[in-house]
Amino acid sequence: MTVGVGRRVALWRVRRRMTQQVFADRIGRSKSWVDKVERGVRTLDRFSVIRQVAEVLRVDPAELLDGGDGRPQTGDATAGVDAVRAALASYDVFTTGPGNVSPTLSGEAVRRVEHAWATYRHGDYPRLLRAVPQLLDTARQLHGHQPEQGAELLVQAYRVTALVLVKVGEPDLAWLAADRALAAAGGDVVSAGSAVVPLAQALRALDQPRLAMAATITAADRVAASTEQAASTGPEQRAVYGTLLLQAALAAASCGDSHSSTELLGHAAEVAGQVGDGQDYRTSTFGPAAVELAHVVAAVDSGDAHQAVRRHDTATSRQLWQGLPAEHRAAYLLDAARAHLDVGDVAGAGRWLVDADRVAPAEIRARPSARTLVAEIARTGGHAAGVARLATALGLTR
Questions:
Q1: If pLDDT is split at 50, 70 and 90, which confidence band does 269 have?
Q2: How far apart are CA 10 and CA 339, in angstroms?
Q3: pLDDT: which is higher, 387 or 262
Q4: What's the 3-state SS for the chain?
Q5: What are the tens digits of pLDDT across the range 18-73?
Q6: What b/e readout covers 4-24, taking b as 16+ CB neighbours within 10 angstroms?
Q7: pLDDT band at 106 (very low <50, low <70, confident <90, very high)
Q8: φ/ψ (deg, to 5) at 94
């Protein structure tokens, strides 16, 4: 039997562990309104309201409009989330201990971590989700036998897991994975700082930008203090420091603190000038190009779409931005599309959306927020033909 929109809202609300009152507060409605919608007494027939509800529930509108039997559907792109959840719930501390580890296990852990990061940078999130359970198992085995040798690999395994979980709309799980990365980092301040990056992204996705800002600024200060005490500071430490500044700037923008965001971006630009472009430190791409794009994203997050559109042309006119990973470029193009939509340039929004799909298809097809944007642009009319094709491929048209 087909389940109505209201019932699907209820199912997703329960899955997200929200009471009716909490959910009502987040969408600016009364508890009575939510109750009537979930019982089918009140009909959700305006797409703007459905989109708002979907954003709070962290799903795309299609899940509410065409959810089939009403059970939460993640689709092929995110089919591996349940296996990742199970892997994160697995604890091996009672089955492993210090001792000799075969070269085979060590080499396998290195290969799996390197492959995971390469897959993430290419934006192939479905493949990465499928690989995560074995990645975590191998990294934890190595760490259990040889803590010192396996610590950095385990941190990287948890970090990339957290990042992909943010992408596919699972910030609660991402927060857990990032927290595990912090624990594995121990006293390595730079490694811990790199783990705060996905933690901040998860907190922003959970609508906690102030916590994200506090975490990144604290981590950045610690990294800066540790490098000042060192005999020499390498580009790796500066890249982690700069990346934390960028995350803090984006969090500040989300808080509406434009002054702090601008100041943090300016500081990040100074660090980027020291690091240069085209380098990859601790799998964190940082440099002048990344800072340029962050200016645009910060403008979008702060609600200044006109500034974002003005800076967009400058940011993408430089060849250096083409050297960024596919994941980074496609994610940025989504923000650019949203900025153009917010200023009424639907054609421009559609063009950048289609470009993002060409760069890294999973950035569009696996991210709930991206699917919501596709649905919104597709319903405006006058958009690029590619958007209609994309909406049809995603099952967002009726």
A1: very high
A2: 31
A3: 262
A4: CCCCHHHHHHHHHHHCCCCHHHHHHHHCCCHHHHHHHHHCCCCCCCHHHHHHHHHHHCCCHHHHHCCCCCCCCCCHHHCCHHHHHHHHCCCCCCCCCCCCCCHHHHHHHHHHHHHHHHHHHCCCHHHHHHHHHHHHHHHHHHHHHCHHHHHHHHHHHHHHHHHHHHHCCCHHHHHHHHHHHHHHHCCCHHHHHHHHHHHHHHHHHCCCHHHHHHHHHHHHHHHHHHHHHCCCCCHHHHHHHHHHHHHHHHHHHHCCCHHHHHHHHHHHHHHHHHHCCCCEECCEECCHHHHHHHHHHHHHHCCCHHHHHHHHHHHHHCHHHHHCCHHHHHHHHHHHHHHHHHCCCHHHHHHHHHHHHHHCHHHHHCCHHHHHHHHHHHCCCCCCHHHHHHHHHCCCCC
A5: 888 888 888 888 888 998 888 877 877 676 788 788 888 877 676 776 554 433 34
A6: bbbbbbbbbbeebebebeebb
A7: confident
A8: -95, -5
Q: What is d(CA 246, CA 197) in angstroms, rounded to the nearest whole number?
A: 9
| Nearest-angstrom CA–CA distance, 279 and 276 | 7
Instruction: Tell the residue number behind the tokens 């009403």, with chain if given.
Output: 70
Residues 298 and 307: beta-carbon distance below 8 Å = no
pTM reported for the whole predicted model:
0.79
Decide if pLDDT at 5 tops 90. Answer: no
Whether the CB-CB separation of 287 and 277 falls below 8 Å is answered with yes
Polymer length of the chain: 398
Query: What pLDDT does residue 293 have?
Result: 92
Query: 16 is written with which tokens?
Result: 């997200």
Environment class of 269 (CB within 10 Å of its CB; exposed 0-12, middle 13-18, buried 19+): middle
Mean confidence (pLDDT) of the chain: 83
